[in-house]
Amino acid sequence: MTAPGTPAILEVDDLRVAFPTRGGLVHAVRGVSFSVGREKVAIVGESGSGKSMTGRAIIGAVPRTGTVTAKRLAFDGMDLLALPPARRRALAGRRIAMVLQDPKFSLNPVMRVGEQIAEGFRVHGIARGAEARDRALAMLEAVRIRDPGRVYRAYPHELSGGMGQRAMIAMMLAPGPDLLIADEPTSALDVTVQAQVLAIIDDLVSRSGMGLIFISHDLDLVARFCDRVIVMLAGRIVESVAASDLRRVSHPYAQGLLRCVPRIDGGQGDLPTLSRDAIWRAEGSAP
Amino acid sequence: MIAVRDLTVRFGLGADVVTAVGGIGFDVRAGESFGIVGESGSGKSTVLRALAGLVDDWSGAVSVAGAPLPRRPDRAFRRRVQLVLQDPYASLHPRQTVDRILAEPLAVHGIPDADRRIVDALAAVGLDASFRFRYPHQLSGGQRQRVAVARALLLDPEILLLDEPTSALDVSVQAEVLNLLRKLRRERRMTFVLVSHNLAVVANMCDRVAVMTGGLIVEQLDAPRLAAGTVTHEYTSALLRASAGYDRSHGAHDAAMG
To answer: Has residue A206 been placed in a domain?
Structure first.
């Protein structure tokens, strides 16, 4: 499944995530398998398709009540589910990083932005003191913040959405991770800012050769931005295609997702809606 | 139906004063669907809030539904002009059932026959009566937005003001809600003012569009011109380019500019 010539940095085989509820077990992810090399892989689907929970399971951020199982969940050859918790935590942040949708909730509101980035260098033992500070400033520059000194000293609430998201990306990329999981990183941003933030991620991913998992509900966006697209529905992968072939997806659900998006030159008639065929959900084996 | 002349809205005092809307004008005909697009901070939502009578301090001349926009909107105004907001999580009371949420505007306006009207309003937005006694957290995002639309419809308004009505929804649910709004407008001959950052949504829903940035309208154009991309202002073309999706070369270029 990996693009030719790139060894997989992440292997996922039969990943399952379930939560106990009053009504019994809810299976959020029901047997997902894919691998990621040094490439940009998109996971798309509607709310509740399990795309975010898949990303969280990889980095180890599934809420405590959830159970994660897999035949294999390996990062750089290491079995993530067998690692001692301390080593797993050390990987998260250092070698696997995650950028979430809204920087408002991921940045510490009472800590200066620059200090938060410098802290990353210190916690992971990459740099200390003035060097951590200089490297944090360099990261802010790398995400094309024009006045890194000012942003370094700013608190999160003093930054705009786009600026906050750039700071967030700077923080996540500071330790030089091998795999970046970006969960709707630009959905909260204006379209023009979105383009800038994507260009930054694109640049950094291509330059450093890290793997990227880009979780999104925006098919048009991932078609242009990513190399491969995985379409999820009800906790399963229904289709996996090269991004350039996205227009030729065969699964009716994936086709429906593409067609229901309004287009500027699409006229004013009713938009095609997605019929949610019960068979799609039942497809494959029972959980 | 709506005439706006030199609308100015300022927030703050003294040195901190911010001009959110800097003297704009536009007209919306009866039965028309008018779009306002722009990015965060462009002032588009402030214009909508002003039209809804929710901004205290504004200047200019605004008439809504044939009468000057009242400084303190009364019940009669509210019946004619209703507002639907972006986030149904935030605009529905979390501890009230759908039934209670929908009963309130009827009680406030002294409208009889609440039972039948609530069931009818739910049916109009495609929800069956079983939704009546659920709480907002028991509904999906699309269902919640339908309840918010149902609440606005209960008073049978002439004007529906919509602030990013689908931007919190999945694309598939967005299509359903947009189709529903289009159908309701046709059936009830309502006038829409729809604010969105999404040009495609506006192109799909609106007859005419105003493009806002920095508190000003930089361009007004009709749907065919928007669809064809024949725009005159530089900012509108930048928006169109960005909306066309991510492009490696453009992305880098725009970022360098920004």
So the answer is: no
Q: Do B170 and A200 touch (CB under 8 A)?
A: no
Phi, psi dihedral angles at A135 (to 5 degrees)? -70, -35
| Cβ contacts of A247-254, under 8 Å, gap ≥ 24 | A247/A223, A251/A280, A252/A277, A252/A280, A253/A277, A253/A280
ipTM: 0.81
Domain region containing A160:
97-176
B interface test, pick of A193, A246, A260, A276 with most B CB neighbours within 10 Å: A260
Q: Residue A118: inside a domain, yes or no?
A: yes
pTM: 0.84
Give the one of B171, B240, B251 whose C-beta lies nearest to A198's C-beta: B251
User: Does A256 touch chain B if contact means CB atoms closer than 8 Å?
Assistant: yes
Which residues on adjacent β-strands are paired with residue A181?
Answer: A98, A213
Helix B171-188 / helix B141-153 crossing angle, nearest 10 deg: 20
- Inter-chain touch A199–B141, beta carbons under 8 Å: no
Does A132 reside within a domain?
A: yes
DSSP labels for A209-245?
A: T-EEEEEES-HHHHHHH-SEEEEEETTEEEEEEEGGG
Q: Write down the mean pLDDT value for chain A.
A: 88
Q: pLDDT tens digits, residue range B190-203? A: 999 999 989 999 99
Number of domains in chain A: 1
Are the beta carbons of A271 and B204 separated by less than 8 Å?
yes
Query: Mean of the per-residue pLDDT values for chain B?
Result: 90
Compare CB distances from A264 to B199, B254, B256 and report the shortest one's residue.
B199
